[in-house]
Design a protein that fits this description.
The complex is a heterodimer of chains A (about 250) and B (about 600).
Chain A: H1 2-33, H2 36-48, E1 51-52, H3 54-66, H4 70-83, H5 88-99, H6 113-121, H7 126-149, H8 153-186, E2 189-192, E3 196-200, E4 209-214, E5 218-225, E6 228-232, E7 238-242, E8 246-248
Antiparallel strand pairs in A: 2-5, 2-8, 3-4, 5-6, 6-7
Helix pairs in contact in A: 1-2, 2-3, 3-4, 4-5, 7-8
Chain B: H1 2-20, E1 25-29, E2 33-35, E3 40-46, E4 51-54, E5 61-76, E6 79-92, E7 96-100, E8 104-107, E9 110-113, E10 117-122, H2 134-141, E11 142-148, E12 159-167, E13 172-180, E14 187-192, E15 199-204, E16 207-221, E17 225-229, E18 233-245, E19 251-261, E20 265-269, E21 281-294, E22 298-299, E23 305-315, E24 331-333, E25 337-345, E26 348-361, E27 365-369, E28 373-378, E29 383-388, E30 392-396, H3 405-411, E31 437-438, H4 448-476, H5 478-499, H6 504-523, H7 532-541, H8 546-562, H9 569-589
Parallel strand pairs in B: 2-10, 21-28, 22-30
Antiparallel strand pairs in B: 1-3, 3-6, 4-8, 5-6, 7-10, 8-9, 11-12, 12-16, 13-18, 14-16, 15-16, 17-20, 18-19, 21-23, 23-26, 24-26, 25-26, 27-30, 28-29
The chains are: A alpha+beta (about 250), B alpha+beta (about 600).
Chain lengths: ~250, ~600
């Protein structure tokens, strides 16, 4: 009986997978015909079923771009880049979408050791770092045992040094995994969705206006107070914005 | 008697007139009550010439004229009358009740005094002039009126002031000159030019008048509250009819100068309602249309296009700011050119104002110009209205690298070879293949799998050490090893028999085979010389206890017997156990 249920579940899940694939193909066909609205609906049904991929987000963003929806197109390009951070095609089209935005926000370049560390950390995601560290732990144990059981002194020497290197690398990768995890936790980008949004200096309507953001601007969420979010721009300006005006890229 | 009475009465009357006719000296004032801006004439009259005239002090007045002496002598019916007058023109210094004291004169050696006169000086009066002079006549017949279209307007709502000069039919105006132009503080004002004065007929306070519209001004109040409109003052030369007539019987006219002013008017400016005021309201009041227009929607990069933000309609067009166009930052935008095409008439300003932005796109792509809004206050409905412009998309077809491609296309009909220009700045097509994964990610990091993967290998080290130690211990323990080895062997050989337990035939065949195999392995004997005697001999030589040997042999015998006798399950189990025990016993003892 139990086996039957498992089989059933597997069948159903593969069935829905196949369905999503067909939705994806249908969406692509609609996109090519120029029916971007319908294509978006198809792509969104896939998202609703709980599946995603960089390509799906990319296509969805393309369709929104064709319909001149500034904020959604940028939002989905960013989503796609989160899954495939180094995809040149996505970056290219994101550049096109950013052309539509109104705000020109400078980026403050990061310099020094912390930037170097950040670059290394961002090479892989924290899961990959974690897996590498586990591999190094296993290597270390094997080499250590080899050292322990080996009889010839050259073998012992070699394996001991190798095992020490492995444990060092384990610590390093583990540290990087934690660092990356923390970075990801802190990194809470969001996209402004309203056409024009007033950013206040305090989380209430009485306070003075700090600056104005337009649709499609990317911000970092720093803090939340009631239905206000503290945001930071890439040029370092901070302010408070109403929750409804922005949409966070990742829900952590 | 009666006659006598009459005569005496007549005589008394005569005598009194004689007395009065003798000498009089009195002070006469033109008015007893006057405004501070009026003048007073004081005459001291006497009917006989005197000396040493001594006028009073006039403390509270300034003497602006006089003393003027006038002497007149007249003969009427043979009777001479004489009159000498000293006149003073006085102007009061302040308000109040003042006394003009006695004046004295010496006539015929006697000193006469006048009675003191009390004068009341009131505040300034509008018409300080005398009623009978031409000026006062003029003031009755000529009026300057400021007509205000609305004395209770909203802030920035247009109102008009029309100055009309009413002239009654029997006077005439020969010339006029503006003395004081009103400065409309707190107003935005514009005069409407009037070409040629037209005389029109109208009525003023129920009487027929002729009137001229001198000036029209449109005002936009810039402040709320009570605002004063300063009066317009004119110096008018007026022809006033006199009582004298010329030889044809027509009235003679005299000229009089008159300063007239339209009284200052105050208007009450209402504030615009606060409720419902849109955030982008910049003070536009009236009735407007709002548009954002571009002259192109498709162009190549580095070409220019114009976007015009335009407000058309009727209202305070020059007095508010046009909403700014917010454009994508990647477009090059020049400072907007402001253009006004406004004409002002009595209804206020009419026309259009516009800001023209010159835009030069730098890169290929689509650039939406977001819709902007313009709010104004509609005076008619007394409500705010907000107009949104349409969203416009500028499509930049060609990037900066090949702006001349349109020309190339024409040339290509002749040239069949054309270099292929790779444009790396293309908007990429969608991706056609994908691997869909679950949205909810299963992170390996910090999962139990991760922690066990990280920590479990460390456990392997002590484990390996313990195992090694145990191994060494076992290697050291000789007898223990032997026992363990024997047990192991027995188990190995009997394993097949155990499987067949229950099936009589198979079991005993397997058991026999197992025992033979065991011996083969232990004693290195061939199957051919596999007799009981031989087995016994070999085992004994190998120092196996004779009792165990017999037991072993009995099991072998049992195996043979069992094939022909009925055997129960229990017996089978007994035989199996026995075999196992014996094998292990042999193993322990054998050398």
């Amino acid at each position: 009986m139990k086996k039957l249920i498992y089989i059933y579940i597997v069948l159903i899940s593969t069935c829905s997978l196949a369905q999503n694939d067909s939705f994806f193909q249908q969406g692509n066909a609609l996109y090519n015909q120029g029916d971007f609205d319908q294509a978006i609906l198809k792509y969104e049904t896939i998202l609703d079923s709980g599946q995603h991929s960089a390509e799906l987000y990319f296509n969805l963003a393309n369709a929104h771009y064709k319909l001149n929806h500034i904020a959604p197109s940028i939002f989905y390009y960013e989503k796609a880049l989160q899954l495939h951070p180094n995809d040149k095609v996505i970056q290219n089209n994101l550049g096109f979408a950013r052309n539509m935005t109104i705000d020109a926000i400078d980026t403050v370049p990061e310099v020094g050791l912390s930037n170097y560390l950040k670059n290394i950390t961002n090479k892989l995601n924290f899961d990959a770092w974690a897996k590498i560290s586990v591999v190094f732990v296993c290597l270390f144990v094997l080499l250590f045992l080899f050292y322990y059981f080996a009889y010839s002194s050259t073998k012992k020497r070699f394996s001991f040094v190798a095992s020490m290197v492995c444990i060092g690398l384990t610590c390093l990768t583990l540290a990087l995994a934690f660092h990356k995890y923390n970075l990801d936790k802190k990194n809470r980008p969001a996209i402004v969705f309203t056409q024009e949004s007033q950013v206040k200096s305090e989380p209430n309507l009485r306070s003075t206006e700090a600056f104005i953001l337009h649709e499609g601007a990317k911000v970092q969420i720093l803090d939340t107070v009631n239905n206000w979010k503290k945001i930071k721009l890439s040029d370092g300006k901070t302010g408070w914005i109403i929750n409804e005006d922005i949409k966070a890229l990742s829900e952590i | 008697m009666k006659l006598l009475k009459h005569i005496s009465l007549i005589l008394i009357l005569f005598s009194t007139t004689l007395v009065s006719a003798q000498i009089t000296f009195e002070a006469k004032v033109s008015k007893k009550k006057l405004g501070i801006n009026e003048r007073l004439r004081v005459d001291f009259e006497m009917n006989k010439d005197g000396d040493n005239f001594n006028p009073p002090g006039f403390e509270n007045f300034t003497v602006i004229g006089g003393p003027n002496q006038a002497v007149s002598t007249s003969w009427v019916n043979g009777k001479r009358s004489y009159k000498k007058t000293y006149s003073y023109f006085l102007s009061p210094k302040k308000r109040g009740s003042f006394r003009i004291n006695q004046a004295t004169i010496e006539i015929d050696g006697e000193i006469y005094k006048t009675n003191p006169v009390t004068i009341v000086v009131t505040s300034a009066v509008n018409n300080p002039n005398d009623e009978n002079n031409p000026e006062s006549i003029a003031s009755k017949n000529i009026h300057l009126v400021a007509e205000i279209s609305n004395t209770n307007p909203y802030l920035n709502e247009a109102i008009t002031v029309v100055y009309k000069l009413y002239v009654s039919p029997d006077t005439g105006v020969s010339n006029w000159r503006e003395i004081d132009n009103p400065r409309y503080n707190d107003f935005w004002s514009q005069n409407i030019d009037i070409k040629g004065l037209k005389v029109l007929n109208g009525s003023y306070k129920g009487e027929d008048y002729r009137y001229v519209v001198l000036r029209k001004t449109v005002l936009y109040p810039q402040k709320t509250g009570k605002l004063e409109i300063e009066p317009l003052s004119l110096d008018v030369t007026i022809e006033v009819p006199t009582n004298r007539r010329d030889i044809f019987g027509g009235r003679l006219m005299t000229r009089a100068h008159k300063t007239i002013s339209a009284g200052s008017r105050s208007i009450n400016v209402k504030e615009l309602p606060i409720t419902g005021k849109p955030s982008d309201f910049t003070g536009a009041v009236g009735d407007f249309q709002f548009n954002v227009i571009t002259n192109k929607s498709e162009l190549n990069a580095s070409e220019s296009l114009q976007a015009r933000v335009e407000v058309k309609g009727n209202g305070n067009l020059k007095l508010f700011e046009l909403p700014k166009l917010s454009l994508p930052s990647s477009l090059e935008v020049f400072e907007p050119e402001h253009a006004e095409n406004v004409s002002t008439n009595l209804n206020g300003m009419q026309g259009s104002i516009s800001d023209a932005y010159t835009i030069v796109p730098q890169f290929k792509g689509k650039y939406p110009i977001p819709s902007i809004s313009f709010s104004y206050f509609d005076v008619k409905t007394e409500s705010y209205k907000r107009i949104f412009s349409n969203e416009i998309v500028i499509n930049v077809l060609e990037g900066p690298t090949n702006t001349t491609s349109s020309d190339n296309n024409i040339a290509s009909t002749n040239n069949n070879k054309q270099p292929i220009v790779v444009n790396n700045q293309q908007f990429a097509f969608i991706k056609t293949k994908t691997d869909l994964i679950s949205i909810n990610p299963n992170y390996f990091f910090k999962s139990t799998g991760f922690w066990t993967g990280l920590l479990l290998p460390f456990l392997a080290i002590p484990l390996a050490l313990i195992i090694r130690k145990k191994k060494q211990e076992r290697a050291a323990d000789v007898t223990g090893n032997k026992i363990r080895k024997a047990d192991k062997l027995a188990k190995r050989y009997l394993s097949e028999a155990k499987k067949a337990l229950g099936n009589k035939e198979a079991f005993y065949v397997a058991l026999e085979k197992a025992l033979h195999n065991y011996l083969k392995a232990k004693l290195n004997i061939e199957t051919s010389d596999f007799t009981k005697d031989k087995i016994k001999e070999l085992l004994v030589t190998r120092k196996v206890d004779s009792q165990i040997v017999t037991e072993f042999l009995s099991i072998l015998q049992n195996c043979e017997l069992a094939r022909y006798t009925p055997i129960t399950q229990v017996e089978m189990q007994q035989d199996f156990d026995k075999a196992a025990k014996t094998i292990s016993a042999i193993d322990k003892q054998i050398i």
